């Protein structure tokens, strides 16, 4: 309509008898004038997503992505249950227990940048579809591993596949309007918390009767469901535009408009190419001058976050086991399966993630991403220090409850900030790199939470406190605050 009105005004002015004939331009100038009057009706993916709002399309995507996160959470939570069970069944040492956890995170670390590159080159949907199938396949094979070495090998492959899961956040965030992005990404952690609670509840029922191998097998059911629904996942419209496929991007945006019951934007879909990196990013582009400080600081934050989060998860079972077996120093104490009270306390501490999520939603929108992450790291450091003064089981459970809620919200705040601060062509690569560095911290943490903790609780908690405080300083040093900031398509826009 605007385009038609522009021509109409021009025609009326040209044909108006009140305009002197000397003022009428030559025919060629009339044609050029008509072109200049017509507005350039173009829009970007960001403008379209913001205009189409949050609706049924995003609800469906929330469920798809949430299922992926729930399955990932179950595979992670099982690590704190698997080690003590294998210790009793196969008589493995403490270092072998730690290796059972480390091998998973090693696979995740080695594959994170690989999956990020696949996601940026071939699409988020393609990478997640491959991830779902591989996760289910290797997870199921883990349940029938005949010995410890085979289990290590298969759990390493499970970790390799899990390295792709953070790309689901990239896909999800790219379809969220700016105003709802932080809340929705943080709320996505509800599925993670739900998966962790479901795994603990499943272990409570399965472990006393069927054992750890059946637990491994039944834990793959959400993975199977996710693999089956992957064909219905939408591909990122931002990816299609950045990869030179605007027709497919436009079709996806039209689907959003249809699902959300909103009118589709009129005009031409455009995208500013990512300056200096072409259409697809590479790992080295994360260290270009405009992004170097942000990338290095985020790597410190992600590594500390994973180190602290998974350390707390592993410490929880170790502290409960030590509390129940205090005074026993024989071999019988070395092989003590988790009891019903242990699972119940583990379930309570896992439930702490829910209030931590909702608190993070409020704080991150009010005070911004940087201050939220920094304050949560400081509170976590204080909570971990308090564990030294373990008086009784109730006190221990309360402190672990608070610390678990804080670190869970913190991890999700990092997932909010990272996709926001990088351009489209580098977004998946950046999230994959951050996730890979995080797994380095997760690889180290079993030797602190499961080995060093046995020798000295004071030293182990001090290590986590120092790591958290260092990460808090890194949060405050980040050069960009992304609160209220639209996701960018260009490198220059991130500076």
Automatic annotation (TrEMBL):
GO terms for cellular component: membrane. The keyword Transmembrane applies. Keywords: Membrane, Transmembrane, Transmembrane helix, Transport. Pfam families: Sugar_tr (PF00083). The chain crosses the membrane at residues 95-115, 127-146, 152-173, 185-206, 212-233, 296-315, 346-364, 373-389, 395-417, 429-449, 455-478. Signal peptide: none annotated. It comes from the Eukaryota. InterPro entries: MFS_dom, MFS_sugar_transport-like, MFS_trans_sf, Sugar_transporter_CS. It is found in: Membrane. Residues 61-485 form the Major facilitator superfamily (MFS) profile domain. Residues 1-25 are annotated as: Disordered. This is Major facilitator superfamily (MFS) profile domain-containing protein. The lineage of its organism: Eukaryota, Metazoa, Ecdysozoa, Arthropoda, Hexapoda.
